[in-house]
Amino acid sequence: MNNGTVGAPRNHSNYVIPGLYDLSVEDTNWVLTSSFIIFTMQTGFGMLESGCVSIKNEVNIMMKNVIDIVLGGFTYWLFGYGMSFGRGPLSNPFIAIGDFMLDPPVGDALMGQIFAAFLFQLSFATTATTIVSGAMAERCNFKAYCLFSFLNTVVYCIPAGWVWGEHGFLNKLGAVDIAGSGPVHLIGGASAFASAAMLGPRLGRYSEGYDPLPLGNPVNACMGLFVLWWGWLAFNSGSTYGVSGAKWQYAARAAVMTMMGSFGGGFTSSIYSFWRHGGGMDIMDLINGVLGSLVSITAGCFLYRAWEALVIGAIGSLFCVLAMPLFDRMGVDDPVGASAVHGVCGIWGVIAVGLFADNPVPLDTTNGRSGLFKGGDWYLLGIQTLSAFCLVCWGICSTFLLLYVINKIIPIRMDPHEELLGADLTEHRIRHSQIGLSRAISALAPIKVDLKEIAGIQPIGINPGHERSIDQLRAAEDKLQQWQSYLEQVSGPRANLKMDAGQTPSDINFKSKTAGNVFSRRNPARRSISGGLYRSNNSELPVIGSVNLPQKPEKDPNFAWVD
């Protein structure tokens, strides 16, 4: 994003190309490809978050991720992009105004560049919104979350303009953030912290202490990490905003430094987890340690040497794993640790630029400045610290205000009985098996909670029609057994029931030597009567009715006796 071209208009014949749209064909290809890959991070977030919550809420968290793209993406096109990068005459250092509902016509000289830039920024915006969903998991009203997702674009877009927009006051002061440790992750983490604090902890979360709750699906959580890891490479490398000139060299450097940072973070969080758990490995320590290091390296991903990336990632990882239990002790229940991963590590990532940044000649990413440890003065460190402070204050305050307003319209917290039953059942009519739902429903029955709407919901993975057919077949078999017992009582030891190998109950011949009759269910001439075991011309399927065993077989209306 801040790669030396964004925010630097370039003259072209009789008009000026804004830096955001100064893209060659090869640059546009790079930006578009990176955007496509960044969108796959939504899969990673969904898998990670669904793996961290209880099974009865895993579908709900995936639906929130879908809503973030659908509603958040729509509002970003509607007004979000214009609030970050609009070029209207009313734009000011706080907010851009213009380019709303972006749709350049055919024939516009910058149509391709504008669409490429919009898609790239859209992928960042939806990521920032999705970060918040995990912190609100398992107790947030889904309808309230939809409204929050629709409006949360404002929380991200205004500070993104401060850092990356031509009008932004932090950009004009010289703030550096290549791929979004601040505008994306710090804003998302601060918003997650405010959301979790305002919602309050899940029911019973701290009744047994502060230890983490069991994961719903640890494998999903690990798979989510790998998908995010993959997407992060495009996130950081793509932020060179092209590969023309010297940018391709820094794109390669960004990818390698991203991996180096994650190596340092994974190593540090592993050592910490082994130490803390007496030789055991806590899965969330490792996952969030790696993610925290990736957040930390993002702001200056192509400004560091390899050893510096290792150190920055290691420090970020340590901050993350220390902050998670601290937030729990503060009563801030964040099921996925988004506040620590994106918030705390986002602060460190922004400040680290002021300490370790190289001057990436010939790009003017840092405006010719270097970090304090690279011979630079205190200015860059100061402006980076100011940026982190402004972003934290905006993220927390704007989210509190937004949720306060939404809560006046739709309660943001689920009802306690809905939380006990799980959002999958109460919000999406999806019933999981063997997760304690029957126990919860039984416990809620005495307090007169209306459960009519959910009582008849079938468990997932079952075809109710097939189950009914199987029940009918079992009832038919039971009824045949009853007739066998009855005939044995009537006929004594001379009655016998024969079933040869390969025969089915419909092939059975009941013989009674005493009565001299043969009961045949294979005889097509017999009567077909509703409510009982019968064979029609078109079906062998038994129909079950309520039958009382007769005194004599020939008087039973459900069967035909043939001489």
Question: Can you walk through the features of this model?
Answer:
The protein is mostly helical. It folds into two domains: 391 residues, Ammonium transporter AmtB like domains (Ammonium transporter fold); 63 residues, no CATH class. Strands 3-4-5 form a three-stranded antiparallel beta sheet, with helices on one face. It has a two-stranded antiparallel ribbon with strand order 1-2. The protein is elongated, with a radius of gyration of 33 Å. It starts with 9 loop residues before the first strand and ends in a 43-residue tail after the last strand. The C terminus is likely disordered.
By secondary-structure content and strand pairing, the structural class works out as mainly alpha
- Strand arrangement, major sheet: 3-4-5
User: Helix and strand string, N-terminal first?
Assistant: EEHHHHHHHHHHHHHHHHHHHEEE
Terminus-to-terminus distance: 92 Å
Descriptive keywords:
transmembrane, two-stranded antiparallel ribbon, 563 residues, three-stranded antiparallel β-sheet, single chain, disordered C terminus, 2 domains, 56% helix, mainly alpha, 3% strand, 5 strands, Ammonium transporter fold
Provide a concise account of the structure shown.
The chain has 563 residues and is mainly alpha-helical. It is 56% helix and 3% strand. The chain folds into two domains: 391 residues, Orthogonal Bundle (Ammonium transporter fold), CATH 1.10.3430.10; 63 residues, no CATH class.
